[in-house]
Design brief:
By secondary structure, the chain is mostly helical. It has helices at 2-9, 19-28, 35-45, 55-75, 87-96.
Length: 99
Amino acid sequence: QWKGVFDRYDRDRSGSIDQQELCTAFNEMGFRVSMNFCSIVVTRFDRQGRHGLKLDDFIQACVMLRCLTDAFKVRDQNLNGIITVSYEDFMMMAINNKP
């Protein structure tokens, strides 16, 4: 299943997903994120330093995004995309997110 999703967004068939392809993938999966965010994700998860994500990196990035989104939604009680968290609550969200 992951391979099919990966292949759908690897539009140039390079075997990796670049920043633009990642942003398209995230947005089409329902995550409204900026190009800047996608750039940071590629930098963080690109283990080979090639400015793109291989399949395993892509899966880890997707899992991270899902976990953080789920943690955010629990706290977004007004469903307006805005939460207020304490420093410790924020740190717990980050520590509990282990892609």
